[in-house]
Every structure is written in structure tokens, then in C-alpha cells.
User: Fold these one by one.
Assistant:
Number 1:
Amino acid sequence: METLIVNTLLSLMVVAVVVLARTRNLFAVIVLFGLYSFLMATVMVALDAVDVAMTEAAVGAGISTVLMLGALHLCRSEEAKPAHKPWLPLAVTAATGLVLVYGTLELPAFSDPAAPIHTHVAPRYLEDGPRETGIPNVVTAVLASYRGFDTLGETTVVFTAGAGIIALLRRRRRNSRDGT
Amino acid sequence: MKRDMVLRVVAKLLIPFILLFAIYVQFHGDFGPGGGFQAGVILAAAMVFYAMIYGLDNARRVLPDWLVESMLAAGVLLYLGVGFAGLLLGGNFLDYFVLDRDPVAGQHRGVFWIELGVAITVCGVMLKIFYLFAARGQDEA
């Protein structure tokens, strides 16, 4: 049943992507992006990754849709006709995709209990995590405690991204004011 | 959308619950799904919602630019502060066990503060990006 649900959602995502690629109206594209994110969030719920689903729904479907609508407000709502033929980018993308698929052939099967990821540190976190940290949600325990250093890095990345965007957009605005 | 009665009333009804949900996600992240990142985004989403219905100027009155920009850095500094608190109390960097006499309580304390730091930074960044985009649209319109 779970496989059926996940597969249905994944096929719906493929449909969304195909329609996305064919749509020229950018408003429709943004709505489809939101739809895609919601489908992805639902897949994550079906795979029991509720933390990721929450993030995907809030960031992918919520905030980034608003940000893209804000960007759409600044430009025209119809996508411009491409200036080049699509064959070279298409070939590069197809080749990269094939290489990636080839790379996954050697990976252990999906949800294989004998896969290295399930036999290395994951059992230790699951067994000792509640006793050592007293945190029932193992995702939070790993994220905040065992991998606290990584999360510090992630927070710094978010901060750097914000600072970079402030630097970019602020200067742009001042320049346009000087120009007028 | 500023003059739409239905949207204004619905927003007024919904925003307290969104804020409450964000706080729940923040402080219940130890037990259920969620944590600092999600709570920060939901908090920012509530503010974005408010700004969309009631206008950017009103939103900036609630959370002014200087405060949002300080939030950007304050979260990271809070996180780093927890790390250095561990150092000062005789542990390693980001060592939560030394934050309290009981190691498990120390873990809770450390996780609480770093999650708060993550939430503050994420909320600040999301809001700042939204403010910048929305303000550009306003300038040119």
C-alpha cells in the first residue's frame, strides 16, 4: 500500500515536471512549483520523514512560492522564447542523468537493512540516543546534539546566504536610485 | 489586498494559530517532529502572511528592519555562545554534558538554546529576503 501511494505521488511529480517544462506562463509555473513541493512533502510523510516533510512544505511550498511571486512582480509574466536550440543542453542533461543512474546501480537496494548506512552509526544513535540525550525524537538528537557541529555549519550557511542577499539587493537598489 | 474584508478577517483569525504552531514546533521539537529550522520558517511565514494582507509598512512596524537584521547574526552568535559556554565550563566546544550537573539535563539545555539560535537566524534570513524583494516591487510600482 505504501509503495502504491509513493509511486502514485512520484508519477504525479513527473506529470508536474513535464507540465512545468511546457508552460510558458510564469504565474502557472510558480503555482506548479508549489504543487511539486507539496507532492514532495507528501512523499516524505509517506516515507516517515515528517521533519523533512515539514521543512519542504514550509520552505518549498510556502516561503519560496511567495518569494518567486515577488520576483514575478518585477518581471514580465510570459517566459521569453529561448534564443538557442535546446539540443546541446538536452544532451548534456541526458548524459549527466545516465551517469547518475549508472552510479546508483551499485548502491544497496532501497530500505535494505544490511546497507552500510543502517549498520554503522545509525543503530548506536537509535539505541543510545534516548539514554544519553534524553530526547525521544532521534532526528533532533542527531541534528542538535551528535551532529551539533554540522548544524552550526548549516546555520552559518543560512546566515551567509542572508548576508549575501542583503549585500546584493541593497547595492542594486542604491545604484538604480543613483541612475534615476 | 489591503481592502479585502474577508482576507483581513481570516488573516486576523489565522495568524495567532500560526504563531502558536511555530512556538509548539520550536519547543516540542525534542519530542515530536520539528525543531528550530521549521519553527523559524513557520514564524517567518506568519509574518509574510501578515505583510501580504496588511501591507509591508505595517509588517515593518511590527518587526523593523534593524531587528530582522540583528536576528540574522544573533542566532548564529547564540549558537556559538552555547559552544563557548561548553568550553568555559571545562568541556569541549559544543559539549552539552557540562551545561548542567545532570548530563541529560545539560543535553536538554544545550539543545534548547541551539534550536532557539537556529530558529532566530532562519526566521531573520527568510523575513529579510522577503522584505528586500517586496520593497523592490514597491519602489518600482
Number 2:
Amino acid sequence: MALATPLSATEPVFRARGLTKTYRMGEVEVPALRGVDLDLYRGEFVVLLGPSGSGKSTLLNILGGLDLPTAGEVWYEGHHLTGASERELTLFRREHVGFVFQFYNLIPSLTARENVAIVTELAGQPMTPEEALARVDLADRMDHFPAQLSGGQQQRVAIARAIAKRPAVLLCDEPTGALDSATGVRVLEALERVNAELGTTTVVITHNADIARMAHRVLYLGDGRIVREERNAQRMPAAELHW
Amino acid sequence: MSALGRKAVRDLWHLRGQALAIALVIAGGVATLVMSQSTYESLTATREQFYRQGALADLWAPLKRAPDTLLPQLAAIPGVQTAQARLLALGTLGVPGFNEPVRAEVVSLPLDGGQPLLNRVQLRSGRLPDPERDNEVVVGEACAAAHALRVGDRLRLTLRGRQRWLQVVGVGTSPEYVYQSPPGAVFPDFKRYAVLWMNRHAMEKALNMDGAFDSVTLRLLPGARAVAVIAELDPLLARYGGVGAYGRHEQTSARYLEEEMRQLQTMARLFPAIFLGVAAFLLHVVLMRLVGTQRDQIGVLKAFGYSHRALAVHYLGMAAAIALLGAALGIALGGGLGRWLAHVYQGIYRFPFLAYQLSIQAVATGVAVSLAAAAAGALMALRAAASLPPAEAMRAPAPARFGPTVIERLGLQRWLSQPARMALRDLERRPGRAAFTVLGLALACAVIMVGRFQGDAVDYMVDTQLSIAQHHDLAVSFIEPAPRRVLFELAALPGVSAAEPVRMAPVRLVHGHRSYRTTIEGLLPDARLRRPLDAQLRPITPSADGVLLTDYLQGMLALAPGDEIEVQALEGHRRLRRVRVAGLVHETIGAQGYMDLDALNRLLGDGDVVSGVLLGVLPGAEPDLYARLDRRPWVAGISSRLASVRSFYATMGESLLVFTWVAALLGGVINFGLVYNAARISLSERGRELASLRVLGMTEGEVSALLLGQLGLLVVVSLPFGFAAGWGLCWLMVQGFQSELFRIPIRLTTATYAFAGLMVLGASVVSALLVRRRIARLDLIAVLKTRE
């Protein structure tokens, strides 16, 4: 397994400059990002580490075109995301990005296979839902509904759903946050394998410092800013993690 | 099927309870539309077809006696296509086994024994009388059905005091007698009124009218103007006692039918519009909330690159499926109800056949309106959900802004429990939603009230017109005005407790360019058996120096008390006189004038005559009295006031009752759909909150009370609005129903309010109980484990 820095580290996939985001929650204004500069490279496995409210999810959502910054710019391979229309953002997400959410966000009325199919039906050259589910070791659970799957299994369905269209980028928001340690490790193994085998740029948000040890690069967020950046000289395989 | 398609199917299945509730509301709206429109179109088509087949005349001209030799002159009037002379007489029929008199209108058939050229008899069974036999008769189908008369039965007919036995050889009807009500009555009475067709020869003998006729009917050439023909016809007939020809719009049956069709059309337009509007509004609200609960799923789908368009198609498809299910149910239900309603009407109008057809236009309109309502509801909801960036859509909505309610700001909170405060704050936070629910419930209540209203209105009409204004037992009418002394003859009959004279003078009232053909009733100033009433239902004394007119004529003839009008008598010396309008009489049925009897006689100059007598009769004396009256040749007809009231209720009561329950059912469905959906959506929105409260130690009952109590409050608040809306809806309906034939008064009884209120509460309780079962099944752990 390749545990060194990815080869194509020259040209960034994502480039973000001066990202600022302020939320209005009811009557309160909450600053989530206060000027973030960031570059992400092809094939990289990046962990965003930080306490609750540090702005991790906001950053991820903006990168994925799910949300728009209050100020600042984002480019994806030369596309200017911050100036894109809703339609362009939809196409961007459809063609390039896979998402994994903390609470899986599976469609409850669809089986595992169908939850994957709902994405493959949109994509240009997807893998089959069966192949995607096999990659996350769920070949035997394909016709189960979300309510019939454990949390770890649901999250692996969500990963299968995210990777099935062979996205260039996989954005994972606390993918193990709702899972126990052993189950979480299985989910991380799936992410690690996808990153290695498909070369998918993978960004994982967590507040679990242990997970950072499997990354190429670790970004520490605090109070809406990137406060520190580390590069793992030696990545630890996901299977060896525990917390 | 695509994965999104499968999601739609499964979501629909999952929401089947709610979807069905919505579909039922739509079904109610579409059913009303299809029912009333189909009934209207079917009856109109049936009527046209019957008029054509039966060659309904264009003009009718009653007269006293003219020789047959006059007929060619009448037929030669420019514009006349066909002229048919005939004899028409009023008599009394004795039906074996029925000891009340049956008033009979006897129509002659041509001497050659064939069908008349106009107003042909459509035989339902048997044949026309043999021209060689004078004792054969065809009986009108309505009366035959009411008395189970068959070909071969024998009847006793009294014409001009002479009795004869007749044999029924046929049962039939004619386009002239589609709506069969006794002369002077408003409602049909099939048991006490019959139309008979006899040989002209037999009638000539009975009436002493050899070679003469007393009625002529005419068919006009296409394009001929009725007014022009009448202008030539009336002078020709005047010397033969003609009282003025009239067209279809003044012919009793055609006029009533026209009026009924007009009312049916009003109903077919107004009622479904209201109902479908309510259904559309509900569908809209419920879908808004339903799509709102899928906010997070919309977020996910958008995150994976589904476009707004794809999502719109998805939710529109779901909404359309519900709407189409509702429309299909509604078309089936409305088609069935329409067939039933047309059948009920056919029973009243006595069409020989019914050309029932499902109105394609109504079906198309119903489907289109349902789909449009569904689409509007789904799209607005989707726009609200989809306008959010996906990241925000997937996040639970920010805690809603709550604040102290008005009640709390007023310092009344110590009277409120914690759950009551939650319920109130929730209502106050979303006043629009609460208002919509209240409005919907109010409309449901209103629909139920409309169903009961008709019964109330009819009760009021019968009560004022036939109970307060009239106190006689029998009304005896004469063949022609008779000297006043006949009153004493009748008053002296055994069993008569009171007798009052009355003169019904046929007149044309003219004011400016407006005119109306009716009667002026001459009454004694101290009459007790028949009293005109004012708007407060107080008796008014008929005036000696003026005429009292039914209040409806005020608008119809554009006059006011104090104005002078022209009165053109249509019998006797046919005088034309100007008379002052002395006042207005409040009447719901008919439109006519009242005068002091002596003043009326002076005005018309026909001497001291009466045209009938009102009798009070001692209990049990009626059968004997009928026989005695029957023997008098100048008696044209006898009618019993109570018998006609009873007969009216027997004819109409059942259909009124069914209408009440159909409307109650439809209102109940709206109500159920609204409450059930509101509760289910609240439950899905607040499931987590309610589960948390359960975890904190609230009982199932307390949690249910929290959710359902809030709805209960809305239901209670909706009631006064519902009562007001119900009144308004009745008012709206009644506006289209006013005519000189009758005016439906807006009188709603307490019982109707109570009925509507209880139906609303009942339907709410049923839906609440269904939802309460779901509260009992709340999975506390699962709910708390899912994301916030």
C-alpha cells in the first residue's frame, strides 16, 4: 500500500483564498470561517482536525459546492466555484464530488443498492452499484433498507454511494462520528482503499486526533482559521488505528 | 424504474394514510363537480330530446268556447306552423282505495283517435283510447305510479258534476306535463293530481262542447316571433273568451323545468367551485408541509447533483399521483351520485327516459383542477426547500424563534400549564399555518351546513306559507266565478266549521315596460283561513283601496309601495284599471296580489262573485264532504292543505335527507383530511421533541394532549368561523335560486348549527384517535439517536 505523498502534488485540485463565512442562526450571527487559504492536491488524503465549531464542516461544504462563502474565492481545477451559478454547482457536484455525511443521509425508502443507484443513474461512467457496495464489503446487504442496517453498514453504503460515480474528490464529514471504534475503523479502511485504488482526493473531517495518523496531510482548524498544518512522514494503515 | 421513481413509489406507500386522506378530499371536490354537471347536462339533454320527440307547443291559448271552424283562421296567422284545437277540463278523479279526491286535468285527444299534432302522448304502457269508445282513458304516469294504477283498472271521473266510470287503457306522459303540479300549487303531488287523456268525442259530450274547443296550442315556424303571433291571435280569440296566449316561459311545466334547470346549473357551477377550491387549498397546504418534512432528503439529492428540475418532476409526480387517485375516485363517485341524482330528479319531473351521460367537460375540469392544485402545492413547497443551499437543507432547521405569546405578555401565563404554553407559542409562531387550518376547518363546517340548510329552508317555507298564512282544511275552486251565495250553500254542508270566500282573478300586472301574469286574490278583510303576512310574519288586512303585492314583485316590476300599477283582468269583462300598491306581502312561494274581496269585485266589474271557498272542516268529516262537493257541477277541484304538505315531504323528504348526508360526508372528509394530515405532519416535525418529553417522564396521554390539544384548540376556534362561512355559503347559493316561483329563505336552525358542529368535532376526534395510535408507537431511542 502506498503510504507516501501522492505523486501528482504539483497542481492543486482545489485552491481556496480568503474564505469567510458567517451564518445567521435565528437572531444570532455566527462566524464560521474567518479567512481560510487552502490548496488540495490530486490523490491526497487530508484530515481536517478541530474542535466543534471550528469551521470544519463549513469549509467542506463550500469546497463541495453545497454552500457559498460570505467572502473569498474557490477554484476547482480552474473552475471558479464562488462565481458559479446554481446550475453549474449542481453539475460540478454531479460530475466531480462524492459526499459522506456523519449521519449517512441515506434515503430511507430505498435499499442499499438503490441508494447507490440514485447516484450512478446521474453519472457519466459510474461503477455498478454492486461493485461499489462490494468495495465497502456490503455485497451481501445490497437489498436491505437503511433501517435494516447497522450504523457502520449504513455509513459504508453512504461511502459506496459517494464513490460509485468515480468522483475526483471525496468529502467526508465526520464519517465515523456516530460509530464505535471497531465499526469506525472498517469505514476508514473503506475510505483508505478507495483513495489508494481510485486515486480519489479524499478530505475527512474529524475531531478524533487518532484518525489524523492515516492522512498524508493534517490541517488543524480553530476558531474559523487553519492554525497548523502537518505532514505525516509515515502514514498508519487504518486497520491499525484504535481509539 | 429509476431509483428516484422507486423512492416516489415507496414514499407514497409510506405516506398512504395521508395521501389517501388528501385523495379523499380531492375526490369529494371532483365528485361534486362531476355529479352536478353530469346531472345538469343529462337533464338538459333529456328535456330537449323529449320536447323534440313530443312536439312541445310554442304557444298556449286558453279560451271559453270557440267553434272548430275558427281553427283554419288561427292556422293562417303568419308565423304559425301548426295549430291544434282541443278541450281541456278540470275534474275530480276517484281512485278506488284512496278516499281523498284527486284533481284531474283532462286533455282531449283528436277525433280520429291518433296522436295530437302537438304535445304528443308518450305511452309507457298500453295504447291510446279507441275513438269509438268513450270510456277509455290514458292516465298520467306520475299519478299511475303513485296509485299503482295499471292498464285495465277502473277510475271514477267527475266532470261538471257528472260521474262516469273509465277504463285505463294506457299510462303515459307528455312534454306539456313533465313537471306535474296541481294548478296553483308549487310542489308536485302525484297522489292528488292527475293528467288524463280522453277522446275528444267523450269530452265534447261531458262538457257540452260539440264542435267547439276551449284551448288551442300552436307551433311556430322557425324564426317566427311569438309576440307578433300573439298580437294577431289574442284579438281573434277575445270574442270567444280568450284570456291571452302565452309562451313556454309562462307554461307551468316548461317554466318550472326551466327554473329548476337554472337552479341546477347555478348549483353545478357554484357548489363544485367552492368544494374544489377547498380541496385545492388543502392539497396545497398539506403538500407544502409534506415536502417540507423531506427537506433533508432534498438536500442530499441536491448534494449529489440532482437538479431542481429533476426534483420538481419527482415531487410533482408524487403530488400528481395523489391528485389523480383522488380525481379517479371522485369521477367514479360523482358519476354514481350523478346517476342517482338524475334518477331522483326524473322521479320529480317524470321524463319517460333519461339520457344520462357523464360530463366529459366536468371530468376534464376535475382532473385539471386537481392536478393544478397538486402542482401548485408541491412546487411552492419544493421551492422553499430547494432554495436553501444543500448544506443548510440537510442541517436541521435552526431552532425556530419562539417568544412569549400575547397571552403571556398580558400576564396571564400563570393560568397556563407548560404544555398549554408550548401549544400556544407554536400556534403563534406560525400564525399563517394556524389560520389556514382554521380556514379549512371552517369551510368543512360550512359545507356540512349547506347540506342541512335546504331542509331548514323548506321547513321554513312550508311553515310560513302553509301553516302561518293558511288555516283552511280544504280549498274548493269553481269552474268559473260564481255568485257569492254559493258560500252559504257550502257553509251549510255537514262537517264544515268555517267557510270563507275567495276570488282568484287571473290578471296581468303592468308597471312601466315590465309585466307579469299572475292572480289577485280577493279576501275578506277579517279573513281567518287565509292571511297575507308581512316581513315579520304578522297578518296584514287586505286593502280596500289598493293591492298588496308579494315582496318579490317589488324588484321584478321595479315598483315601491305607493306606486300605481296597471291591472289587466284576464277573465270576465277584461277590464284595464290602475291600482295603487298598498303594501308588500312576505311570501317565499309564488308571487301574486291580494285585495279586499269587495274592492276586487268592484275593480273588475263582474259582479259580486267568488271563484272558490276555503273551508274549515271538523275532524273526520272530510270523506263525506268530498262526496257532497263532488256532486256539484260547478266545483272544479278540491284540495286538502295538510295532505299536500304531507305529500310534499313524502316526495322531497328522502332526497333532502340524502343530500344532507352526502354534504355531511363530504364536509366530514375535508375535516378528516385536514385534521389527520395536520396531526401527522406535526408528529413528524415534532417527533423528536415529543419523544424527548416522553424520555423526560411525560406520559403518553400528556404527550398526545400536547400535540392533539393544539389541534383541538384550532378545531374549537374554527367553529364560529365555520358557522359564519356556512351562513355565507348558503347566502351565496340562494342568490342563484331566487325566482318568482319561490325564494329560498336563509333560515338556519340551531339544530343545523349543532349538527355541523358535532360533525366537525366527530371527524376531528376520529382523525385524532388514528394519530394517537402513532404517538403510542413513538420509538424513543431511535428518535433521540438520529441527527439534530
